[in-house]
Structure formats: C-alpha cells, structure tokens
Specification:
- The protein is of the alpha/beta class.
- 49% of the residues lie in helices and 6% in strands.
- It has helices spanning 13-25, 42-54, 90-95, 116-129, 145-154, 177-188, 208-213, 224-233, 239-248, 253-260, 266-282, 285-295, 303-324, 338-347, 350-366, 373-385, 396-402, and strands at 31-35, 103-106, 165-169, 194-200, 215-218.
- Strand 3 (165-169), helix 6 (177-188) and strand 4 (194-200) form a beta-alpha-beta unit.
- The longest helix has 22 residues, at 303-324.
- The radius of gyration is 25 Å and the shape is elongated.
- The structure holds zinc ion.
C-alpha cells in the first residue's frame, strides 16, 4: 500500500505545500518535472501527488459522468482534506495499490520483451509490500517503447473514472528522443486531460524542449538526521548502523537503504576501506602497495565501490578531527573504534587532517569523469600519504603500472 501522502513527504516542506496548493485549486499544468538528487523522494512525491489528484473528495477530481462504482458508493465532496488524498474513497483505494485505471506509472526496465509484464507486476507488488522499496535497475534499463506505445494509444480516450489521467514517469531521462517527442505532442494536444509527472536525478539529460514545457519542482537532499531517524523508525535499522548509513547517504534515503541491503555488511566494507587508509596515513608505501594490489580491479562497475571506499575515508578523517577537538563518542560515526580514533587523533595535526579531507573531496568530485577507478584510488591514497608517499617511494613495477 502506498501510504505516503503529500502532507507526510519526508523533508520536502516546500514541495509539499506547493503540490497541495495545486490539488486544492484543482488546476493542473500539463506536465511537471520533479528534479533533484537521487533518492530524496521524488517518485514517492509524484505518486502521492497522483493519488491526491485522483482522490474523489478533492476539488474537480471526479468526472462529471461517473461510472457506476464497483463498491456501490458515490463520491462525497468535501469530506476529505481537500488538498491531499483522503485514503478512503474509491479513487484512493484503487490508487493506493497502484490499480487506479487513470494512474499510469512508467519506470525503467531491462530484460527481454516477453518477460516485461512479469517484471512490472513484481515491481508493483514489491512497492505495495514495502513503502520504502528501493528501485534497482541495470545501467542500460530504459523506459520501453512498448510501454509508451500502449500509453500513447490510451491517451486518445477519455479517462476512465476521474476527470484527468495522471502519468508518472520515473527517471524519465531514460526515455529515448522519439519517446520524448511523442510525449511532447501529447502534452500540447488541445484539451488534453492528462497531467504528466516526470522525475529525474539527471536534469541535464532531459531534452531542453521537455524542460521548458514542464513546470519544474526542485527537491533538496535530505538532512542526515532525517535519514537516520527514518532508517531507525521506518526501516527498523539499529541505531549504530543508522548513524553510519545516514552519514554515508549524501542526503539520499535510497542510497542509505541500498547500502543497508548490500551483500557485504557496512562494517566489513568500512573495515576494508580503513585497511587501505591506515598505511596511507602512516606513510607506509609497502603496506599500502600490498593493500592496493588486493583492493583494485574495480573494473567498469567499480565507481560506486570506489566512491564508498573514499567516503569511508572521509568519515574516518572527520571523526579524527572531531576527536582531536575533544568530541565525545556520541558525535563520532566510527565510535566502535573509539580507542584507535583517540590514539590517532592525538598524533595527527589538525591542518594535516584537513588537507587530506580536501584530497578526498577532490577525488570524489572526479569520480564521475572519465577516470580509472584503480588509478584514482592509488593516486588519492598516495596524496593522502603526503611527501612520504611521493615519487621514489614506490616499487618499480608500481611505477610501470601507474606511471607514478
Ligand atoms: Zn480519496
């Protein structure tokens, strides 16, 4: 069941107010573009907006000539919140299980055409079962032509029971040029009774023609404390893990949940990352070289792993800085290693720790560029090490491999 309403969107008060204003006035633009970082609730908000728009108790939602209700109850005006889904009417009952005939939800898919129906149904079921369901799809996943073809054919008809149809397209940047063009044509059709709600975390990949025709709604990253609280309260994550996941989330609940679900535990991943950082901080090229030999081979899909490794390094250095200034265990992400943190913090200079944090920040910014993950890890750790890990510190075969 989709239980998140517009009034309960996590950490997006401005968006919530804006969308409820639209619902209460009953005046919809032809298309909206929800954009902002990955995993901050854009799709959840899009579906909440759709449910509110299709609630039979909000202004102008029901079609004039209502089809006889399957449940034998007529819509009652004025008994819901007026700017949000009431959760009780016929429309809300259907939309909360993603079964409203006037709610179309498209999302990226991969795999063979003949298995798509199954994949779609499995995904919808997973969303009904888990309000915090994490979408995970392959890099090549796309909004399929068959999905849009079917939808476009349907747009020629009037909505089934509501006065408008809502089409939600998750990660719309995964549509092809011709799909966008077909969509534009539909949007510009006079008297269109469809409102499109597109979401994207990659605004620059959405064609300018689409961006300019949509009303844009910007989503902000979530605060670390909100991610942490949500993990604890809604996802049942224990306090210690929630703290670390939230610190690694970059304000994205989805990222925190995906990290929670990873095959290797948070702690094991953190320990593996720290096994590399230790020799770098100690300026020990032999140990670092051995560690790197073991850790590299990130390969093509390795950027996420590299990112996480460097982020663990960041968290550790931030903890060192905090410990250096006398912060108590409650303020530390890695407080299970308190003794080690304290011992290191006493030895390291605060200015040096900051310099290393800058090196990491720079490396993290460069990850999305066309760089080799292996080389980035090596050069970053060498720079974290400073002078002692400069030229001449490395064995000849290292020099040959990475041109240090
Ligand atoms: Zn309702």
């Amino acid at each position: 069941m989709l239980t998140v309403n517009l009034s309960s969107l996590l950490g997006q008060p401005a968006v919530s107010t804006f969308l409820r204003g639209i619902v209460s006035r009953g005046r919809y633009a032809n298309a909206y573009l929800f954009h902002g970082p990955h995993g901050v609730g854009k799709c959840t908000a899009a579906l909440a907006f759709a449910r509110a728009a299709l609630c039979e108790r909000v202004p102008g939602a029901a079609a004039v000539d209502l089809a006889p209700s399957l449940f034998g109850d007529a819509p009652v005006a004025g008994t819901g919140p007026g700017d949000d889904a009431c959760g009780e009417c016929r429309g809300c009952r259907m939309s909360s299980t993603l079964q409203h005939p006037d709610l179309r939800f498209l999302f990226p898919l991969s795999g063979e055409e003949k298995t798509l129906d199954n994949t779609i149904e499995e995904t919808l079921q997973a969303m009904r079962d888990d309000p915090l369901h994490v979408f995970q799809y392959e890099k090549a996943a796309s909004i399929r032509i068959s999905q849009t073809r079917e939808l476009l054919a349907e747009l020629g008809y009037r909505p089934h029971t509501a006065s408008r149809r809502i089409v939600v397209v998750r990660d719309c940047d995964r549509m092809r040029e011709d799909q966008f063009s077909a969509m534009l044509k539909a949007v510009e059709e006079p008297g269109a009774s469809t409102a499109w709600v597109l979401t994207t975390a990659r605004l620059s990949r959405v064609p300018a023609t689409i961006r300019s025709r949509c009303q844009r709604v910007r989503f902000a990253p979530l605060s670390e404390s909100l991610v942490r609280e949500t993990l604890e309260v809604r996802a049942g994550v224990d306090e210690k893990d929630a703290r670390m996941l939230a610190a690694l989330s970059s304000g994205s609940l989805t990222r925190a949940l995906a990290l929670r679900d990873a095959d290797t535990s948070m702690k094991d991943q953190r320990d593996a990352a720290l096994a590399l950082l230790g020799p770098a901080l100690a300026g020990d090229p032999g140990a670092l070289w051995t560690g790197i030999q073991r850790a590299t081979g990130f390969g093509k899909a390795g950027r996420e792993r590299l990112r996480l490794t460097l982020e663990f390094h960041q968290l550790w250095l931030r903890d060192l800085l905090r410990a250096r200034y006398g912060a108590g265990p409650d303020a530390l992400v890695n407080r299970d290693r308190l003794a080690q943190l304290k011992e290191l913090a006493a030895r390291l200079d605060a200015g040096e720790i900051r310099r290393r944090l800058l090196v990491l920040e720079e490396a993290l910014r460069s990850i999305d560029g066309n760089v080799s993950a292996d080389l980035t890890l090596f050069s970053t750790l060498a720079r974290v090490g400073g002078e002692r890990l400069g030229e001449g510190a490395w064995p000849a075969h290292a020099t040959a491999r990475w041109d240090v």
